């Protein structure tokens, strides 16, 4: 790996050890399964992805990539955890979808293929990289003029610290301990600023409410914990 890459080796190692459970809806990644329909609908309702070229940045085991492919999108998924990509490819073969999975970073791909995609999505990745603003810049370069870019992440608030980290990771144990680091969480104003600097216009900011014990997930007004943001180039 290039030492200049915008990656955290520890984060890649952590997600690599979880590769085998990516598609277990009752396992340590249950939260991703629960919120995936909300993420999918947010993107599809706003960008209508059928027939469009869509890039999934930080695709992991392919949960969202496959969901978008099921809506008719032509999906490319990128990630730096080869173990996760192996799971994504294996599940794709079982599901019958045609998704182009690649081990690369958003920055490297933006250099090689600028203005290639109609839609770019980046879900739950910004809080796991050293330089999240660099991801915004790369996504801005990857999307075509007039195209849509979507992010989902966790707000850096006391409530998120209490519930997303304290309760979910240490009290309830529904998320693996150490998954989130409070100082790396991203405030909406920061995300909006990085998007503006990347040539993107913020179209929408929506909160995402998630109740782990019942698996309930839905969009909401409050952005105090999880939230999603829609940009357009």
From TrEMBL:
What's this protein's name? Ubiquinone biosynthesis O-methyltransferase
List keywords of the entry alphabetically: Methyltransferase, S-adenosyl-L-methionine, Transferase, Ubiquinone, Ubiquinone biosynthesis
Q: Which HAMAP family match?
A: UbiG (MF_00472)
Segments forming domain Methyltransferase type: 55-151
| The organism of origin for this protein | Desulfosarcina ovata subsp. ovata
Q: Work out whether the entry's keyword set contains Glycoprotein.
A: no
The organism sits in which domain of life?
Answer: Bacteria
Task: State one molecular function term (GO).
Answer: polyprenyldihydroxybenzoate methyltransferase activity
Q: Which PANTHER family match?
A: METHYLTRANSFERASE, UBIQUINONE BIOSYNTHESIS O-METHYLTRANSFERASE, MITOCHONDRIAL
Q: Does the keyword Mitochondrion apply?
A: no
Q: Which NCBIfam families match?
A: UbiG
A GO BP annotation:
methylation
Q: Which SUPFAM superfamilies match?
A: S-adenosyl-L-methionine-dependent methyltransferases
């Amino acid at each position: 790996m290039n030492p200049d890459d915008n990656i955290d080796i520890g984060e890649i190692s952590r997600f690599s050890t979880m590769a085998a459970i990516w598609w277990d809806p009752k396992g340590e990644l249950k939260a991703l399964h629960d919120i995936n329909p909300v993420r999918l609908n947010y993107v599809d309702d706003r960008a209508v992805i059928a027939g469009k070229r869509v890039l999934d940045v930080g695709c992991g085991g392919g949960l969202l990539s496959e969901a978008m492919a099921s809506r008719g999108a032509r999906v490319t998924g990128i990630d730096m955890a080869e173990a996760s990509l192996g799971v994504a490819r294996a599940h794709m073969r079982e599901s019958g979808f045609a998704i182009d999975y690649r081990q690369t970073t958003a920055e490297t791909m933006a250099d090689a293929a600028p203005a290639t995609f109609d839609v770019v999505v980046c879900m739950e990745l910004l809080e796991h990289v050293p330089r999240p603003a660099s991801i915004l810049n790369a996504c801005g370069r990857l999307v075509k003029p007039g195209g849509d870019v979507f992010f989902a992440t966790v707000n850096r608030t006391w409530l998120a610290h209490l519930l997303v980290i304290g309760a979910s990771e240490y009290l309830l144990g529904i998320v693996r301990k150490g998954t989130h680091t409070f100082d790396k969480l991203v405030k909406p104003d920061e995300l909006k600023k990085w998007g503006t600097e990347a040539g993107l216009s913020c179209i929408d900011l929506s909160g995402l409410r998630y109740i782990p014990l019942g698996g309930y997930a839905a969009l909401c007004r409050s952005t105090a914990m999880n939230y999603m943001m829609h940009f357009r180039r």
